[in-house]
Amino acid sequence: MAIQASEIEHLIQDAFPTATVTITDLAGDGNHYAAEVIAEEFAGKNRVQQQRLVYAALKGKMDGPNGALHALALTTKVKE
What we know:
With about 80 residues, this protein is α+β, with helices and mostly antiparallel strands. It contains two helices and three strands.
């Protein structure tokens, strides 16, 4: 079950309105993406906390073998 890059971006952008989000389809299959999320909301949080927030924003799209998103290489940064 594939997911569009625009849907991933929309979910993240909804959770982090200040974010700059860049999504890259790594394999062309709609299942393997890289995301860079730069957001003010990450201030004061370590990298693990930042990434957990992003995964939560995906609202279960990566949950289990039936998830719409198989792999997401995630880079998070605080927006300056």
